[in-house]
Amino acid sequence: VEEGEEGMVDLIAGQVKELLKRNQVKQSDLPGIGVGCAGHIRHSDGVIVTTSNLEGFNNYPLRAELQSHFDIPVILDNDANAQAYGEYKFGAGKGTRDMIFVTISTGIGAGLVINGGLYRGMSGTAGEFGHTIVEPGSDLVCTCGNRGCIMALACGMALPYMFEKKLREGMETKLNMPPKFNISKINGQTLKKGLDMDDPLSKAVISDSAYYVGIGLYNLFQILNPPLIVLGGGLTNWGEFYLDKIKETFYELARDMLIDPIRIVLSEIVGDAGVIGAAALSLE
Amino acid sequence: VEEGEEGMVDLIAGQVKELLKRNQVKQSDLPGIGVGCAGHIRHSDGVIVTTSNLEGFNNYPLRAELQSHFDIPVILDNDANAQAYGEYKFGAGKGTRDMIFVTISTGIGAGLVINGGLYRGMSGTAGEFGHTIVEPGSDLVCTCGNRGCIMALACGMALPYMFEKKLREGMETKLNMPPKFNISKINGQTLKKGLDMDDPLSKAVISDSAYYVGIGLYNLFQILNPPLIVLGGGLTNWGEFYLDKIKETFYELARDMLIDPIRIVLSEIVGDAGVIGAAALSLE
After folding, report:
1. What is this model's ipTM?
2. Confidence at residue A96, expressed as pLDDT on a 0 to 100 scale
3. A50: nearest CA in chain B?
4. Which among A129, A218, A224 has CB closest to B126?
5. Residues B121, A226 contacting (CB under 8 angstroms)
6. What was the pLDDT predicted at A198?
């Protein structure tokens, strides 16, 4: 990140070339090079419009810059789209033509597979599920500036605020919090520890996140009526407790409006889903 | 409605036959007969699963029953899907391959056109936009049983509750309300009168409806990133005041996340959009 835009491009290109060399693979042996990147990506011309995960890179033509280093096609897409496509081709979505992949991580996003292909919408930003609003009067504000979107209420970046709010409301925690404890460092792993020691505050924050993700999935169900929703991203490491709460909210809301059974499952390509998905983009 | 399920089918079949006769058209001159019906329709086998607009008709095989009267194909779909397809073929959606039609009427629903075709999802219920939840703690409850879905907060059926709530909160109205006035009769036309006489309570209810529809459209934008949203249904007769408020909410939320311009326009097939849309289904 400290290398800046050009430095980053040189680094990526260098790494790809190094990988090719080490594996004795020629560029011409490959259909292409797929790149997944967080943020609003304009798929048509491979430009990062905005991204909150990197400094700079506003209206940055990442695809063209990378392409100048290679003779085979470079494809750039949003990382959630890449993961969705990977899951569709090689993971939990194999054999279906329609699915939604939702990643619950630092941020929250989704990729839509519709009629057997990624659906990107007008500008390439379809699937920005994390920015759908489900609590417009909330005091939790997202990095996008809006109140009460699912990211503000449930994602990794929101955890310190959610935690602090419950502390302020008088809830007690079993987590070890020395006097100079920096609450902004609270993340998914902190709360996993809390969950494992049966800490009521950690469980309350995890439950809140699950509740809003559950509402969000219900809204996706009403709009797209998919047969399959695949969940990935770091916060799913909270495990059964988290997933059960998400499903509980979903099924309480969907009830008899669910005509056919829907599958809500975990990602099957754990860990490298983003990389495998990005590579798979060149098979699209 | 009083004729019951069988009586209704006989009535529809009789009317279609009468229309054919009067216009000297043979069945074989037509590609098919399209039927649009409110409710959850399973498109694969033409069964009404549930509908809150008719008595009976639960798990009712309307398509098969109508088909038994005709030699050409009968197609049954949800009325919002039919209107969406009509608008796509002959109205505001001509020339686009992707659009969302939203009807704001007694209820609220939507039809999705994706990659040049209606998208129905797994069971045929995709586009049930009205049941997406945007205010889970609301005291307004939908006929579906959930709190704070857009229908509960913004549709024609919700107007009496919205009106009564504002009265209870102490707002005054210029509308003539004699002692035995039945508040449950308040509908879109009542509030149109109120709007025309600059009644603050009517305008507040209309603004609230617009606010929640605006949030709903913003959520649709984040999920599907469509180039075009077409609005139809009786409540759009509230005109500019209503549409401006809807757009105001939408653009306040979307801001710089809107990479390409989106068109939010009124239905161009006013009045018979449902009938024209249903007929158009046989061209799909």
Report:
1. 0.94
2. 96
3. B257
4. A224
5. yes
6. 97
Instruction: Spell out where B86-217 has E strands.
Output: 99-104, 108-114, 117-119
* Vertex B151 angle, CA B146 and B154, to 5°: 130
Chain A residues touching residue B101 (CB < 8 angstroms): none
Rounded to 5 degrees, what angle do the CA atoms B255, B256, B262 make?
70
Give A-chain residues touching B254 at CB under 8 angstroms.
none
Q: Using N-to-C axis directions, what is the helix angle for A200-224 and A240-254, rounded to 10°?
A: 40
User: What's the rounded Cα separation, in Å, for the pair B83 and B278?
Assistant: 7
B chain contacts of residue A225, beta-carbon cutoff 8 Å? 120-128
Which chain A residue shows the shortest CA-CA distance from B110?
A223
Residue of A122, A211, A262, A263 best to disrupt the B interface, most CBs of B under 10 A: A122
Q: What is the pLDDT of residues B98-139, one digit of tens each?
A: 999 999 999 999 999 999 999 999 999 999 999 999 999 999
Looking at CA atoms only, how far is residue A249 from chain B in angstroms? 11
- The model's pTM is 0.94
Would you call B225 and A40 a contact, using CB atoms and an 8 Å cutoff? Answer: no
Cβ burial of B227 (10 Å; 0-12, 13-18, 19+) is middle
Q: Which of A110, A127, A222 sits opposite B132 (nearest CB)?
A: A222
Supply B3's token pair. Answer: 């004729």
Measured between beta carbons, the chain B residues lying within 8 angstroms of A142 are none
Alpha-carbon dihedral angle through residues B33, B66, B45, B151, given to the nearest 10 degrees: 80
Q: What is the mean pLDDT of chain A?
A: 94
Contacts of A139 in chain B (CB under 8 A): none
What CA–CA distance (Å, rounded) separates B241 from B151?
Answer: 20
Give the β-pairing of A99-104 and A108-114: antiparallel
The pLDDT tens digits of the residues spanning A83-117 come to 999 999 999 999 999 999 999 999 999 999 999 99
Q: Quick check: B121 and A98 CB within 8 A? A: yes
Average pLDDT over residues A226-248: 97
Question: Which is more confidently placed, B94 or B54?
Answer: B94
Indicate the residue of B122, B227, B259 with minimum beta-carbon distance to A49: B259
For every residue of B95-133, DSSP letters joined together read T-S-EEEEEESSSEEEEEEETTEEE-TTTS-TT-GGG-B
pLDDT of residue A62: 95
Q: Could you read off the pLDDT of A194-217 as tens digits, one per residue?
A: 999 999 999 999 999 999 999 999
